[in-house]
C-alpha cells in the first residue's frame, strides 16, 4: 500500500517581511505542475524504448545514393546544374548527397543572347567540387553527340 499523495511544502516568509515582496515572489514563480511518480517512470521507460528503436533503425538504414556513380570513377562525365551551367570532367569522387569532385573540368559557355544555346567557347576550371543540391543531370561523356532539335519547325523560304 502506498502512502497518500505528497503535500508540497510552501516556502514560508518571515512574518516581518512586507506583503509586497510576497506578491512579487508569487508573480515571478508560477506554480509548477508535477506528474506522479508512476507517470514519470512510465514516461521514462517509453522514451528509452523509443530511443532504442530509433537507434536500431539508424544502424539498419545506411544512406544510399540514388545513382551508382562508382562505375564512372576516373571516367569523363558531363554535369548540368540548376541555372543552366554545364561542365564536364573526370569524376574523382562523390558522396550520397551527390556532391561531386571533378578533375580537369571544362565549363561550356552559353550564348549571352539566348541562354538555351551552347557556344563553342569553353573555360578551363581544373579541380572542382560540385554541390549536390544544384546538380540536375549526370551523364557519361562517351557516346554523347549533339543532334539538331527535332521539335523546331523548319522555315522554308
The biggest sheet, with number of strands, parallel, antiparallel or mixed sense and barrel status, is:
5 strands, antiparallel
* Order of helix and strand elements from N to C terminus: HHEEEEE
Instruction: Count every beta strand, where a strand is a DSSP E run of 2 or more residues.
Output: 5
Amount of beta strand? 25-35%
Cα gyration radius (Å): 34 Å
The CATH level-2 architecture of the domain at 69-140 is identified as Roll
Output the structural class: alpha+beta
The average pLDDT value, as a whole number, equals 76
Which stretches are poorly predicted, pLDDT < 50 over at least 5 residues? none
Structural commentary:
With 157 residues, the chain is α+β, with helices and mostly antiparallel strands. It has a domain of 72 residues: SH3 type barrels (Roll). A 5-stranded antiparallel beta sheet has the order 4-3-2-1-5, with no helix packed on it. The longest helix is centred in the first third of the chain and has 24 residues. The chain starts with 18 loop residues before the first helix and ends in a 17-residue tail after the last strand. The relative contact order is 0.12. The model has no long low-confidence stretch (mean pLDDT 76).
